[in-house]
Amino acid sequence: MPHRRTIEVDYLARVEGEGALRLVIEQDQVTEAKLKIFEPPRFFEAFLRGRRYEEASDITARICGICPVAYQMSAVHALESLCQAQVPSQIRALRRMLYCGEWIESHILHIYMLHAPDFLGYDDAISLAKDHKDIVERGLKLKKIGNDIIKLIGGREIHPINVKLGGFYKAPSKQDMLALIEKLSWARQAALETVEWVSGFKFLDFEADYEFVSLVHATEYPMNEGDIQTRSGLRLTADDYEQHFSEQHVAHSNALQSVLDNNTVYFVGPMARYFHNFSKLPEVCQTAARDAGLTPQCFNPFKSIIIRAIEVLFAIDEALRLAKAYAEPDLAAIAVPPRAGTGRAATEAPRGLLWHRYDLDAEGLITNANIVPPTSQNQRIIEADIAQVAQNYAHCDDLTLQHQLEQAIRNYDPCISCATHFLNLKVERKGTPA
Amino acid sequence: MSKERKQKKPFIILGIGNDFRGDDGFGIAVAKTLRDQFQLQHVHISRGDATELLTYFEQTHCLVLVDAIYNPAHPPGQAQYFPLDQLPATATQLRSSTHLVSINEALAFGELYGKLPEQVHIFGVTAEDFAQGAGISDKVRQNIWPTCVKIAALVNALTTSTPHTVAPSSAKS
Question: pLDDT for A301-342, tens place per residue?
């Protein structure tokens, strides 16, 4: 191998733009690993200024086509916190079920379409489907059920339109909710099969000592509510987030990078949720995890696909419980009069902790907004993983190395995960061959 | 003929895109124009999710898709039309979001699972800018009305034995 290898993986500009990787290996030692991610929320923060607080959930939903519910939920919870509005239990349950729908469709898309092909040696999901038709069809049916939940409660499969401050514009009928039960019953079995399927993949022997950060809740696997918990023992509310988490500019990326106290790099997402909340998973999920070879603590990011499958099972089981218990609320939404001040909230997007902050004036106009998405928070840990994986594979040819790095990036299901399909690898060899 | 086949719509028009992302709003703008000014039936708007597309595949004999296209090889504002058998192989060309499965991939799934309609027509325009919050660029906007005219003519040919003109109800925007 040459003395110094520089690997630059350039982005191909797409709708959501940039994902680029620069790796420098000198004498089989990784000396540089830098990841650049496009960050759509920065535009939306500026766009929200001067808009009415009622518009925040509709505007922020446009940030992402795969997790709009997460943005809507963080927005309404932050503003309701400021305005001291507490939704009744029936609306709370509907919001939780809506989030279940998003976890299902987002995780299933990732598992079947984006990540499983890596493990099974296929270029894409189409190639996978040609050889494993029934398996991929199962994934498509599961994803559709997630979309059906979102459509029923959110009004539309993508960029839901039924969410508002205080609840919903319209609550689903009991009849429409009951119609989901049969689909969810099928989906529960299909989710168990998904866990079994992915648990049979071959996983890289890789672990790291992660600082996991997620919501925790007294009684449930958290989605919309809870305190923020770190593995090192810090527990705080969303209101205290800025006192411990900060965003930094880095020269190599347009996106801000997040760190915890003392410049600590941290890790949000399904693995963090699983670490902090395993005991809150229902028995069917805990058993499925054990049967898949997992313990309550998992430090191998390549096994995140199993944990996502466990969360799909959880979301389906939870949605089934909520659908069976559903009673049409007396009111689809409560009033939320505006208050001047600052509201903050954190909810668990499929990819991890999503924190919002809004400053309002007395008329209800947004004067400032700050949105910290999970992918931004994970940038530093992704770089650390890439550096370590590259170190382990430094002796390999560039094509093998690139494959492993793309797979490592996809462990985090970041917003650039699709962009990594289109990364062109340019190898610049410097120095004399060893 | 099966009951299911009898109940299929003669055509469905899907305008695909994201109206918050510059020229990615093209498909949606065409759909709205067809619905509001040409008053065509069976016009829908989609964000391009694969499972949503597969649902539409099963509901019709003829699917018309409208979307902005990313293709640096073509100048912005260039109108493009593909019948299904001439769709470029590049899976990345027609994709409404980096998260969602592309239209090519959705069509490939449809073919694999035997869900494709008898006819699929894809109308597009090469986009200039997908910037967030920006409106549709002038070069792309100029294609909205001509695309609507072409689609209306196609629908007319599909649905009538005696040709007559499907005319918009008001002057073009």
Answer: 999 999 999 999 999 999 999 999 999 999 999 999 999 999
In this complex, is the C-beta atom of A244 within 8 Å of any C-beta atom belonging to chain B? no
How open is the CA angle A104-A107-A111, to the nearest 5 degrees? 130
Which residues of B, range 128-167, sit inside 8 Å of A by Cβ? 130, 132-133
The β-bridge relationship of strands B12-16 and B62-69 is parallel
Q: Does residue B138 sit in helix, strand or coil?
A: helix
Residue B52 forms contact with A (CB below 8 Å): yes
Q: Which of A62, A137, A140 shows the shortest C-beta gap to B20?
A: A62
Looking up tokens 């995780």 gives A107
Give the Cα separation of B137 and B127 in Å (integer).
Answer: 8
Identify whether the C-beta of residue B137 lies closer than 8 Å to the C-beta of residue A105: no
Closest CA to A65 of A258, A350, A272, A267: A350
Q: pLDDT (tens digit, 0 to 9) for every residue of chain B, 173 residues total?
A: 455 555 888 999 999 988 877 898 999 999 999 999 999 999 999 877 777 888 899 899 999 999 988 777 789 999 989 888 777 655 344 444 445 667 777 888 899 999 899 999 999 999 888 776 668 999 999 999 999 999 999 999 987 754 444 445 543 33
Complex ipTM value: 0.79
**A126-185, pLDDT tens digit by residue?**
899 999 999 999 999 999 999 999 999 999 887 899 999 999 999 999 999 999 999 999
- pTM, two decimal places: 0.89
Nearest to B13 by CA among B162, B158, B168, B173: B158
Residue A142: CA count within 13 A, CB half-sphere: 33
CA distances from A127 to A116, A123, A124, A176 (A): 11, 7, 6, 36
